[in-house]
Fold each of these.
Amino acid sequence: MIVLYDNLSSGNAYKVRLMLHKRGLPYTRIEMDIDAGATRRPDFLALNPDGRVPLLVLDDGTKLPESNAILAYLAKGTDLLPENAADFAQVLRWLFWEQYSHEPNIATLRYWITHKVEMTAYRKLAIEDKRARGVAALGVMETHLTANDFFAAGRFTIADIALYAYTHVAEEGGGFDLAPYPAIRAWLARVAVQPRHIPITA
Amino acid sequence: MIVLYDNLSSGNAYKVRLMLHKRGLPYTRIEMDIDAGATRRPDFLALNPDGRVPLLVLDDGTKLPESNAILAYLAKGTDLLPENAADFAQVLRWLFWEQYSHEPNIATLRYWITHKVEMTAYRKLAIEDKRARGVAALGVMETHLTANDFFAAGRFTIADIALYAYTHVAEEGGGFDLAPYPAIRAWLARVAVQPRHIPITA
């Protein structure tokens, strides 16, 4: 059976739980205590040298880290990852954008605040940088969603799953208010009523 | 004809030039003066709201940003992006890892230093953080390449193209010395002798 090294507070891990549920795939969940350093211990680093969850371990022992690569793997051959090159490219475009321009700002601030990490001099200055970049990312999303119901291919895909994960909890991240983004809020509601949706805490 | 909004100093843009050359696809190149703010002007933001190069504009007017999404688009259906799900997943895993754990550290430091950006209080502290994370990323690569000739699928793929782009110029980034990484250096040499290789300046 598939094994998911997981953490219930992680939006990246939630993407994978949500996707596994949509596919109806059974799996064993191993909750990792990130705050206690569980993902930085040698036994876990031997599985994922990057020291992060989520990590999927397949039946044949293959180890697959990186939440959006896991989404693409689990979606391949389904409607959630289009096969035609143009739509496939746009789905990937938003997956990479999420990991580069959205997650390092919105998710990292949420992590620092909700996990009460030490506020070093670097982090104190980084908060302002990340807040500005997070607001810019929400602006890019709002513009796109004003003209589109979903991020790519004219329908619900893993691009929406990836961007939903940390956007719907952005207000936990200190300073991200979704009130000025009506198109984002309408899209969040559309994602939440897709078949076989589950909340981040499930 | 395909249009590439490009910058010759950008490793992300180089990935696309290298891939277009490998495919033998003709294209029109538009050099963007990043230092002069060319990618932040309204006319370019209308093409890519993220304000970054590379941006590919296809014959039908489709706009595709995100270097690794462009690689996947151009590689789809070729040996450079495996079709079987397991190898496909590992290629994507390394593409996402490159953009999350490698590029923001090694490429950003190179950019700050070679483009002589203003050293704000935030950037001065961020340099130490990025240098440590860059060294950690090189360690992950060295471990992987000690046991593997290429990053995924047992052969040269777009995962190698993506990681080559900024690794082979890491020493321009202030403080990254590749001497302690013999497996990385051997892999760089293997990549550089693949068919239809071109240097970053071409």
Amino acid sequence: MDYGAASPVDPRVLEEMMPYFSDSFGNPASLHSYAFEAQRAMERARGQVASLIGAEPGEIVFTSCATESNNLALIGAALRYRSRGSGVVVSNIEHISILNICKELSKQGFEIRYVPVDRDGIIRLDRLEALVDDETVLVSIMAANGEIGTVQPIREAAEVAHEHGALFHTDATAAAGKVPLDVGEVGVDLMTLSSNDLYGPKGVGALYVRKGLRVKPLMIGGGQENGMRSGSENIPGIVGMGKAAEFAKKEMKSEAERLTRLRDRLIKGITEEIPASYLNGHPKRRLPNNANIRFSYIEGEALILSLDELGIQVSSGSACAAKTLEPSHVLLAIGLKHEEAHGSLVFTLGKGNREEHVEYVIRQMPGVVRRLRSMSPLTPEELR
Amino acid sequence: MDYGAASPVDPRVLEEMMPYFSDSFGNPASLHSYAFEAQRAMERARGQVASLIGAEPGEIVFTSCATESNNLALIGAALRYRSRGSGVVVSNIEHISILNICKELSKQGFEIRYVPVDRDGIIRLDRLEALVDDETVLVSIMAANGEIGTVQPIREAAEVAHEHGALFHTDATAAAGKVPLDVGEVGVDLMTLSSNDLYGPKGVGALYVRKGLRVKPLMIGGGQENGMRSGSENIPGIVGMGKAAEFAKKEMKSEAERLTRLRDRLIKGITEEIPASYLNGHPKRRLPNNANIRFSYIEGEALILSLDELGIQVSSGSACAAKTLEPSHVLLAIGLKHEEAHGSLVFTLGKGNREEHVEYVIRQMPGVVRRLRSMSPLTPEELR
């Protein structure tokens, strides 16, 4: 139940990729027939990814991962359109890559403003309106938060950005393939997509760049990807991401319904069976696969290790920040205390999870929590 | 015979990668058992890549491709050590990514100096000595040129750099796995490696960063790869590159001998059978798999297309620049005229090539060349 950290490649996706490793292994930039095959495969994949978000194929730039897409979007757009202004506005629950990119932009003279969220993790639109002004070059608000699952009002956020002539980027790593996203409807200028979060291979991502816009390339070289991302293309990876996007589009609705049922059963089962356990994030406006639950008087790390022994894999926050031992910045941003944040667990459900897995977790967790609480001097007598 | 543009993944490498797509698919940053497996696989691969070049595992940073490694090396080192000086020295036959990165560094205030090469494509060490001074922060000379095959005296070049306190980077994309490279012997500070050129998967590369050095990260985020390259790691790709490096080390000697025989037969067969055809690059100090031959009174593009119809795939230069229709900057740098550069073909041999392939090419080429020459008004009567 840690699909947010990493996902297995869908076997149908892997099958699609296989011929491109050792048979159709051409470089799309060559002039001979091997190149044409690679070129065709890449353009088909571009169309599949575009279709998932209602974009045109020419608006998709393939990258090596969501982190690269975030770097390309923020640094690339901020530098390219610097003459429009030097203000950048992001939420304070963005992925660590966005927040660290902002620190770098700040060193380069940009003024970064952070939009707070409410206790459910929804960005404060009133505060966003107050923070965006005519000096703002870029607003970046994630489509959904991978830790607490909250789905953001990005259409409204994009409107605020556009009223002031700023560009709008959304990191859709956690949201794509889980909730419908249409770049036309939402009014997005730049959107980050991850392959692995769609059950595609690791090592590939994409950035949607609205037609007519350009970003300053992060990687300079042969001018691939319309000059915005140089480097010989990872054709098997790109083919895999394309196929994964195709399945995500086709199966999103039924899978989201299935996951929502499992998620709600998991939340209800745990919070009813275990005293002093509470849901983090919005009860309704959340990703179908996300349950973030906090347990008083307990350390998340200890819970993770104990559950791992029982064959249950979960996370204490974003895997990207798992080893810092710092409490999740997202949980602090929704107003939790340090010890509450430390006692929270993230369950991210996925294709492999069935009802029996959820029931198993609900059966096992109370004993684990009780045992760990019994070892803590802070636990009140009635919870031991 | 276009292995320089793209290589098939070795089936043994692909087999090694397979479990990491859908079974052992963990994120090394997680805290549970899936993570440990991913972590172990990644560290094993790091050791395998390090071993190919005589480095320590901790000196290998995994990236998404050789172009990224070149960007990270040049931009990352130039910015990180800017206080040492703002001079950068490169050869004028570097890969297009290096040359384009230099243009960007130039915009950022660095002074770029270009070392010329002689008619065989060997860098002029005397000129290098004259160009490097105490203001030089970085010297970058490729280990071997992928177009004309020339192997460079990088040990001597590194010495020149170090005498002036400059760092030395080498782009070993074309050389690694073909000729022995030992970072200790050569005295390299930074070295670019490509996975696909070792018969590993596309979408992964590495940068050797000598212990004690750091480069400014190009991609900012969760702090993976010792803070020098953020983004969730492409575990199957990394595992593949590791295995490919292991095979490259083990099989380099015998494969280089085999390819050298094929290469020499190819060069001899073509230049003897076809009048007005000449070898480009150094006759001896060249990659075992490279033959670059120019044909007077003919266009390389026309040759490529005609040969493709006969099942022969070759290149007119670097695939990365194939579509620009500009003559190769490498061929111009060794003193060829525009029309000579346009009439040149690059053969890059590889694992799949056998003697019968070479003989087939030698049999087919004279007819193709004669036919194309007969269509050109420039062709002298005796060659028609």
